[in-house]
Amino acid sequence: MTGPTTSRGRLVLALALTVAVALFLAFVPLHRHWFDLNVYYDAVGHWLRDGRIYDFTIPGADGADYGFTYPPFAALCMLPMALFTWPAAITLSMVLNVAASAILLTWLIGPIVRRHGWNKWFAFVVAACLFVLLEPVRDTFSFGQVNLLLLVLVFFDAWLLSTGHGRFAGCGIGLAAAIKLTPAIFIGYLLITRRWRAAATATGTAAAATLLALAVAPGASRVYWTEALWDTDRIGVLSYVSNQSWEGVLARLFDPVPPSGVVWALGVLAVLAVWAHRVRCAVAVGDERAGFALTGVTACLISPITWVHHLVWLIPALAVLVDSGLRPDAPPARRRLLLQVGAVVYVLLCSSVVWLWRFDSTGVDGFLGSNTYVWICLGLLIALPLRGARSATMLGQEPYPARIP
């Protein structure tokens, strides 16, 4: 990392960068006014008062009504919010997301910083400033979303697997899958990589959490698994530009006609086939950090709804891309290309570019521009570089074994 060589120079630059980012966050992006947190908070209160949670809705900016869409176990986890005032709930959400961000940055950039001998605190400040400028991160904070917390749960298991403590892995993925169904794809990753014990632990943890919710809240569990889960209208408008999934592409392409379920399913199968192949390639060279990153990218593509704030699942892949461009043993031309691609992806993920087509996504420019983040996902899925067994890892200092036992 090039930059100031003196402590004073690093301090001045860190302060200037922090102030500039703070001013940008305060005045430039649209704030979401903790809309999702408000849904959680009011839905839990409605549940306690009336005994029902999945019939509660509030209107959104796109004209749709939004309600509590997570499984009952998530509602149990959020139940303590009822003890807080609304300002205290906002504070709690911010504190948890800040803590999750700090943990993720430590896991993602810590080994890179050590490998290159950079100044730790300065590198962390720069990385943190770059991190919060990402639109998915900004939206996660201002919506009061939970995806950064789920990302920590999932990558805790990745950290366990990468540091030789795999016998304890699986609980994080299982809890994340019980809170929100999308992370269940990481159980598929464990199966593909033949982490049978971790896969069983994850499945058992998810099942135990779901059964706990069933025992505590049988009515809510019955409504969710028999009605709410299958009611896609309660999730949101599929064609809304914030939906950056394969389903969102089809919905905008054929709007106002509902997208074909067969075409969507074929696309999902194709994405899963590419994902399985790339994950096996990652396992073959011992690059588990890329395998987890590819799984996060795939989750964004195959989910029927992938709002922009869900794209925090791309952050590990972005870290892999940049880290690969910093490899000293790679040809200089390849390093430059990877860093340039990483910079372009980063800028696009900060730009909020898809919102330019919020009201009209027709035409070639609309098709390409309104789905920008989907194209980024596809590019990362197909071309994310893999590192060999001799390379240092993203989540630990020791190299991965050539084969996963």
From TrEMBL:
Chief location category: membrane
Protein's UniProt keywords contain Chaperone: no
Positions of transmembrane segments: 12-30, 88-109, 121-137, 143-161, 168-192, 198-217, 261-278, 290-316, 337-357, 372-389
Keywords in alphabetical order: Cell membrane, Membrane, Transferase, Transmembrane, Transmembrane helix
Tagged with keyword tRNA processing: no
Protein localization: Cell membrane
Membrane topology: Multi-pass membrane protein
Family: Belongs to the glycosyltransferase 87 family.
Protein's name according to its UniProt entry: Glycosyltransferase 87 family protein
Upper lineage: Bacteria, Bacillati, Actinomycetota, Actinomycetes, Kitasatosporales
